[in-house]
Design a protein that fits this description.
Elements lengths: L2 E9 L3 H11 L3 E8 L6 E8 L2 E8 L6 H9 L2 E9 L2 H11 L3 E8 L5 E5 L9 E5 L4
Parallel strand pairs: 1-4, 5-8
Antiparallel strand pairs: 1-5, 2-3, 3-4, 6-7, 7-8
GO molecular function: lyase activity; metal ion binding; methylmalonyl-CoA epimerase activity
Keywords: Lyase, Metal-binding
Family: Belongs to the methylmalonyl-CoA epimerase family.
Length: 138
């Protein structure tokens, strides 16, 4: 199955400063901004478009339980994950299973934009957090 880069997720400490940088320095446009307080997310998210490419800025809203807060404490701010668009998430999951690649099953969800997503287990990806996603309503 073909995979295409969908977006880069960046863990940030201050979303206002990060939006300013992506807007003024990189020439990006703020597409959307929202909070997701769901367990396992607990982040404020700003979606930036930089000349057709997307970056998600991710700031934790709960410094104790947010996975973004844990990431920043362990690794510091910066690239959190790389997301790949797959044609059909269910089929892509079957391919991963055949290859022995595990997912973080708790991360399977649909976001407010209708994007279905799941994270692959970093133990099986060389340490990189990889997201697979699709847009079933498109």
């Amino acid at each position: 199955m073909e995979k295409k880069l969908d977006h880069i997720g960046v863990a940030v400490r201050n979303i206002e400063d990060s939006i300013a940088f992506y807007t003024h320095i990189l020439g990006g446009t703020l597409i959307d901004r929202y909070r997701n307080e769901a367990e396992g997310v607990e982040s404020e998210i700003a979606i930036m478009d930089i000349h057709g490419d997307r970056t998600e800025l991710l700031m934790p809203t709960n410094n104790t339980s947010s996975p973004i807060a844990r990431f920043i404490k362990q690794k510091g701010k910066g690239v959190h994950h790389v997301a790949y668009h797959v044609g059909d998430l269910k089929e892509a999951l079957k391919e991963l299973e055949k290859e022995g690649i595990r997912t973080l099953e708790w991360s399977l969800r649909t976001n407010k934009h209708g994007r279905r997503l799941i994270y692959l287990n970093p133990a099986d990806t060389g340490g990189t957090i990889i997201e697979y996603c699709d847009y079933p309503d498109e």
